[in-house]
Protein 1
Amino acid sequence: MKIKDIAKLAGVSPATVSRVMNKNGYVKAEKREAVEKVIREVGYRPNEIAKSLKNKRSNIIGVIVPKISTETASRVLEGITQIAKERNYQLLISNTNLQIEEEINALEFLSNKLVDGIIISATEVTDQHLAVARQLTVPLVVIGQRMAGFTSILYSNNHAVHDLVDHLVQAGHKKIGFIGVDPKDKEVGQVRKQAYMDALNHHQLPYKEELVAIGDFSIESGYQQMASILKKQRPTAVLAVTDHLAIGAIQCIKDNGLSVPADISVTGLGDVKLAKYLSPPLTTVHYYFKTSGQLAASELFNQIDQLNMENKEIYVDYELRIRASVKKIERNS
Amino acid sequence: MKIKDIAKLAGVSPATVSRVMNKNGYVKAEKREAVEKVIREVGYRPNEIAKSLKNKRSNIIGVIVPKISTETASRVLEGITQIAKERNYQLLISNTNLQIEEEINALEFLSNKLVDGIIISATEVTDQHLAVARQLTVPLVVIGQRMAGFTSILYSNNHAVHDLVDHLVQAGHKKIGFIGVDPKDKEVGQVRKQAYMDALNHHQLPYKEELVAIGDFSIESGYQQMASILKKQRPTAVLAVTDHLAIGAIQCIKDNGLSVPADISVTGLGDVKLAKYLSPPLTTVHYYFKTSGQLAASELFNQIDQLNMENKEIYVDYELRIRASVKKIERNS
DNA sequence: TTGTATGCGTTATCAT
DNA sequence: ATGATAACGCATACAA
């Protein structure tokens, strides 16, 4: 069923049908009703592809996520879909499984007029990313990383880690371990580690190589890195840069016959939904991932509508969530 | 940049450029190279919308999910994306936020030739769903619910619950409570409840209204329903139809000064990623959600390729995960 | 082996 | 107020 068929059935021209469908232009009430009747009867729905070609607008935004099966990604997506729905937009999603090359491919593919704008939630920003991004003919918003020349939605990694360290120090901790991730991820790998070092320094605590371990984003990695730290020295507290790492670390501590927080306190970052249902409930930083998705989408639409083309760096709020995985220790350690 | 421009720059006709891009038809090596060179130099990418209109194929599949921010949904999506990627397909995702009306809308919208096929992960199948589904001009695969006339990917809810009850009975439990969800969700609300009743019956245990409570899918609901059961009678074990309900129930039990599993054993269904990191680790049923996504996508592609148009009901595997949240009790209760 | 011309389904311009 | 028609960018039948 195409517009022509409807026109024939209703005894009008295709142009009139189009006018009825889009509620613009003049059309006599009588004809309008005739057309509407036919449309209802045959259940006609316009071909969105043809509309997009003609309108040069697909009403679709592309979203590139590193791993869709993570809680972070799905919360961000929820925020994006919410704003998109208000604007009558659909989401085309590319799951890149943490493969850089896939990210580049997705970026290129989506740029072919298929989408009106792109949101990328990146773990790493390479020169290649930049090169491809600069070629884009549609607006791009980045979540989670800084990308020169594009608006970015950022998490306050520096402040959040400082708050966490402050909290630990106030609880009397002086030997604070750290479990991080690869520095290729600039925001999570570098910024959070640097913040940890700065915070130690700020409290006049020494930075000790033996208390630091670098893993990936898995729970298992948290376990392994904790094990490697315990082999060298025993901290009284550990700051893990994600909740999953913290959860793995806690498991490892327990398996070593130690207790959290009695022997070792642990903190994470992110506040996964189950963080407060763990035993002990995990002290962490709540990030408003859904909000970041909403912000990214709003900014993107501003650019699509050419309302505001300047590139911003927007920091999304966070909140320290103090729970039982951190314990005060005696003042004479 | 369109195909015409490339043609001009390379000194050939648009048709030749098209042939080069799609690697079909004959074209002299020399011209091919010239065209490829221009394409590389200007970074030409074809307009996917125009291709779709011409080819009557968008290489996009639509996916409708009830709530994208759930672990279940994201694991299913991961499976779908994986298969889709192999076929060079993109995903257009509609997040319906558990709103029936949204589901219908999405179904209608996606059917407009925009996508080559649709996968819907439904919580409820109404007559309206059926009516719209029957009008579709593209294939449809359903995940998680039975839908007459369409192929469905189903979870073995009946068997899984039986296994769970068997496990509890073998551990000596006779007063087994139940926390379920609204029967509108046929598979989770009805089938799982019926299986619970059948299993009790099979073990010659009485069904007691006071031990049963119905909530929604949230952790909080698990908490509330557990509280309502405890007010009436105290079971020795509780079967919750999702892990989240189980987690809420455990929290409630703890808050009432009781212990899991010493006082009350608890089981869930689904095996969320953190289930084994809870205290106590949660006994549950592992569902292969990612696999179900893969199966759904494979079946959909079979239908898109018209390889196999028969409607199947495919059950995806499950596995009982016995952990510490269930405790053997003395034989003289 | 290559080019020309037509059509995919819609919207919008221009007459009428 | 309405209808005829060109154009969106691409692929392909047909001609050459």
Protein 2
Amino acid sequence: MKLGQATIKDIARELNVSTSTVSRALKDYPGISDETKRKVKELADKLNYRPNAVALSLRKSKSFTIGVIIPEVVHFFFSTVISGVEEVAFANGYNVILCQTNEKFSREKSSVETMLSNQIDGVLVSFSRETTSFDHFKKMIDLEFPIVFFDRIPDLENTINVTVNDYQGAYNAVKHLIDQGFKKIVHLSGPDNLTISKQRKEGYLDALRDSGIKVKPEWIVECPYGTEKESILITTELFKNKENRPDAIFAHHDIVAAGAMMALKALNLKIPEDVGVVGFSNWQFSSMIDPPLSTVAQPGFQIGETATKILLEMISKKTNMESFPQNIVLDTELLIRKSSVKV
Amino acid sequence: MKLGQATIKDIARELNVSTSTVSRALKDYPGISDETKRKVKELADKLNYRPNAVALSLRKSKSFTIGVIIPEVVHFFFSTVISGVEEVAFANGYNVILCQTNEKFSREKSSVETMLSNQIDGVLVSFSRETTSFDHFKKMIDLEFPIVFFDRIPDLENTINVTVNDYQGAYNAVKHLIDQGFKKIVHLSGPDNLTISKQRKEGYLDALRDSGIKVKPEWIVECPYGTEKESILITTELFKNKENRPDAIFAHHDIVAAGAMMALKALNLKIPEDVGVVGFSNWQFSSMIDPPLSTVAQPGFQIGETATKILLEMISKKTNMESFPQNIVLDTELLIRKSSVKV
DNA sequence: TTGTAAGCGTTATCAT
DNA sequence: ATGATAACGCTTACAA
């Protein structure tokens, strides 16, 4: 495309051979004289020849590019996943095209269109908060287009998903709070339509139930946006009255937990003496805040790696769809720090 | 590429017209009967026709794709920049291909090759910590390949760069520490080969000089990796002895500052009473740590937006190279929080 | 108003 | 050992 870029044709012309000869020489096909090979390669080198990946894509119906659709890059979790994706993709000669939806359904749909138009070989998806219809993904699946969902997975048949055990992670976190002697544990939950939110809520509920603690409905508050500000407002509301004040928080993720901690401090409540706090995701900052935040760590990098490995396998069709594990569930790890440990 | 994907040929065959007619009808070219247009569009719709972007790329020598080469996605600053890039690219119908170098020179070189092979229309670059030779970029520039550097800019002629005023940001930060009464201010600096590191160091030096403070050589310590751990080690070393102990830290970025704060706390030094701390970049966590960290905020999103806008202009050659501003320098903002304010 | 054909860069197939 | 040709999907002179 760049004016200066040499093509196979240029080499062929200059050497008075055919393009097929050049093509073959460059890839060491049998049946090309060493002499020719040498000349071709030398000239290619000199002209700084670089195969045109676009022409190859067209010819081979394969672009060596995978797409990633995620809500937002700036979320630590997602950027960690991308790192894992990039790593595996790069190691296998694949490029990564990135589309962030900013949690918008419309952007997600157009991202899917773009990706299909661009003949990408497969796609990794974690869908937006707004997404409730999955027709756009269904379409891809029906076309047998390689697609792997991670973190946020859809309610569809025959999808391949990579997640962490959100239920167990939440269960362990809440169990830990109970073990520490906390009894009135509220849950700042995530958007209701996401499976991860449901799973974490279930884990929370079951942990309380298993310990014989009756859950009050007002203990579960949805934080749909998951921002610090939202969390501060909600937490302040929950804790401002002395009577019946809860004594612990299990937050849907660390930003929400951090917001809650700020609100608690503003109310002059001590963490963990008055209120224990556990978050989810182990964001970069979680070990640095005061007190350090206990949290459920998700292996983001590993999620990215795993999802990409599976996707690349699907692409190269080493195996058929049926042989793929439908759901890969990775383990979380409860990191106990000061915010939840009674002294 | 997907077996199921309809092409212009399919439509042509089914409708008994030529492919050119279909092509023209689809894009409302003049000189096509309304009747034909209608039929073509209807069928296209029914077959779920989607133009093959790869074929278009090849034909037009234009891929509507830009590349981004950065050290690491997981850095809050870079992911913020990507957000800005994505936003502008998307709004203009461009895709974003992402390559992270993991701060490796070799990866950077191969990324450049990949991008060139893939006929991307332009590239945004913030190079790796290891990079000291710029031949690979020089090659692109000589080919008049559209390229915009941001944040980390090379020592090359005729490049277009988007940065923040690191010098001024650092100067303001250190001036602020001096105004607060701190006198023995150390600088935990960045990798020496990066312009940003040099600029920040200069700002630091000039601020001290302008206030008549003599800088001791041992006050400047390089933190090449910029990790929390590295910073903890270095800070502990710097502050463990009572005599001649410094009384403030200006860190090259917030992670380093956060590490320093952890080290100070471990030494039982109070922030900001005993030691004032200012960071750089306003990472997400900076307002949440204890005490909240004063820092120099960089407009990451805006850097991404600006760089991408310029790149797209270069691509569409609305203007010629000479008319481009060589250096866009955006302003930083000093965010004063508790970590640097003497009570 | 529509069709024909060439071409973007590459490779696979069939000749020679 | 090498060449000619068609094809991938699409656009665009040029012709009709």
Protein 3
Amino acid sequence: MAKNNAKQDLKPISNPKISNSVEDYLKAIWMTAQDGAASTNALAEQLNIAAPSVSAMLSKLQNLEFVVYERYKGASLTESGKAKALELLRRHRLIETFLFESFDYSWDEVHDEAEQLEHAVSSQFIERLATFLDHPTHDPHGDPIPCPNGNLPDTPNTALAEAESGQSFVVARLLSQAADVLSYFAKLGIQPGKELKIIEFEPLGGLVHLLIDDVPRALSKELAMIVRGDIVKTPTV
Amino acid sequence: MAKNNAKQDLKPISNPKISNSVEDYLKAIWMTAQDGAASTNALAEQLNIAAPSVSAMLSKLQNLEFVVYERYKGASLTESGKAKALELLRRHRLIETFLFESFDYSWDEVHDEAEQLEHAVSSQFIERLATFLDHPTHDPHGDPIPCPNGNLPDTPNTALAEAESGQSFVVARLLSQAADVLSYFAKLGIQPGKELKIIEFEPLGGLVHLLIDDVPRALSKELAMIVRGDIVKTPTV
DNA sequence: CTTATAATTTAGGCATGGCTAAAAATAATG
DNA sequence: CATTATTTTTAGCCATGCCTAAATTATAAG
Ligand SMILES: [Mn+2]
Ligand SMILES: [Mn+2]
Ligand SMILES: [Mn+2]
Ligand SMILES: [Mn+2]
């Protein structure tokens, strides 16, 4: 008859199972500010939660020592908070990879499912999953998967918009979580691994003309900022 | 800026995402009573939740029309409640099968993980999973996996305790969720698919002596009631 | 440097799902 | 059938997270 008698000690022994919400907040802080401070509004926006609720949660996270928070000045992760955030990010991206590779999820479907599953899986599950997938370093969007120790694999990060006429560009990553943006890229055939040939940049509007699978296409500057990768001087033969 | 403005209409349009708790209660009612009525205490026991909490939840389930509930007389599932319960059971058992087959989970580890995951996966995930596993009919414990329409595949259900000296018995199912019981069976090599030879039953204590993988073993009557399967008159050659 | 605007916090609620202690109903027993 | 024992419900709390409306504080403009 053990029941739920945890009652909470003053300093929780160690693993009082962080709630889904707390996990998502920590991840959001990391995504918004990495090592800097994330503002209340930015987090409210990211999480789609009203600002006062965020305010309250930031105080709570401070008590849990996941965050350093000063009123009106935003919150930044402590070491322990950062570790939790990266752990969740690892889970999220491994799950996305799995859904994409093994379950034929489309590119813009993986995120929502992973957003839920990330909270439900055990660490045993995650390590078995990593093994099953042969320890991938990047997810289907090209985002780096944090290692168990929190290291982030290197990731090419030159924007397509920074390339020049005549160059080739290998896509490594798409810096967007918006489903409509992602499926638009998918429709164009722009995905990690794909090689693009830049025909030319328009002088003023910033439009870029390029060849995707030998088909001529045009992309706005905004979208060309989202596409990240490497410039290749010597096109593959 | 949609926010969480659902507010709940009088009759919820259709899918206001049932909570984990509600799902677990419905499953517990099904497991405790199938089509009959489950008592408050039985559910409290199953779910490891205090009886007053169960009482409150049963009223709530009645309002949601998942249950017919009369004070002091227990609750029984409505059609809609039963459908939800079987849907969850399907998720649970498919997930257990997956963990066992693809992730090398041991037999007694699958349950706890599935207990969480079952609430987090979408129906898209579940149908992809079913395809991935090639539409299994039974989980690693031999429990039938409900079909999407709620049908339960047939399952051999003769207790080992009902067999007779000299007969062979093919294990199909182990009617227990207790991790210690399951790992004890695992240690003995008793698992779905295994063929046992019954040497003899002790006349009074009910102990059964049998051959498992040609090794002589003894099993108590209690355990022999948990092992379910088919009696085979003609041992395989 | 004052005022208008924007960001953030406080105040006050609400829903969900737990708990314990005490009352009430049902079931079992002499 | 009266009394005890068991089961179940009621009453009263609490924690978590979310919300809106109303301060308050910071920031930007004039
Ligand atoms: Mn999430
Ligand atoms: Mn991703
Ligand atoms: Mn569950
Ligand atoms: Mn099972």
